[in-house]
Design goal:
It is elongated, with a radius of gyration of 35 Å. It is of the alpha+beta class. It has a 4-stranded antiparallel beta sheet with strand order 1-2-3-4, with no helix packed on it. The chain contains 3 helices and 4 strands, in the order H-H-H-E-E-E-E.
């Protein structure tokens, strides 16, 4: 017992720091596995609470299609004569949407806007724009 007492208190004598019984208990409790487990459980609960509240924030999304190229050749007839018609097309689109979950119902309200463009090349050249300025949706599961 005498050797254990000396071994336990030699480091504190060498450092020059005196520890009370309450200090020793506090240090042991703070470095225990149980204390670390409790701290991690507390952090996990905080993150779960934050994630739960985040689902009620508005969700903003931007989607689009990069220009896609298609090329086709089709046989056409005019006044009894056949000929080959070339069709080349570029298509692109962009859509912006914001959704908000409605509490207690599980549904959500959405507002979106979109724009797309189609360019035709070849024998006939033209461009088309399609716009959906505002689209309002409500979904209920």
């Amino acid at each position: 017992m005498k050797y254990i007492f000396i071994i336990l208190f030699i480091p504190s004598i060498l450092i020059g720091e005196e520890l009370t019984l309450h200090d020793c208990i506090r240090i042991a409790q703070s470095k225990s596995l149980r204390a670390k487990n409790i701290e991690l459980n507390k952090k996990q609960a905080e993150y779960a609470h934050t994630a739960f509240n985040a689902q009620y924030l508005p969700q903003l999304s931007l989607s689009g299609n990069i220009p896609g190229y298609t090329n086709r050749i089709q046989e056409e007839s005019f006044k009894g004569e056949s000929y080959l018609q070339s069709y080349e097309t570029w298509r692109s689109s962009l859509n912006l949407q914001i959704n908000q979950i409605i509490p207690f119902t599980g549904g959500y309200l959405g507002v979106s806007s979109g724009l797309s463009r189609t360019d035709n090349f070849g024998t006939i050249e033209n461009s088309h724009w399609l716009s959906n300025p505002v689209v309002i949706t409500y979904n209920q599961p």
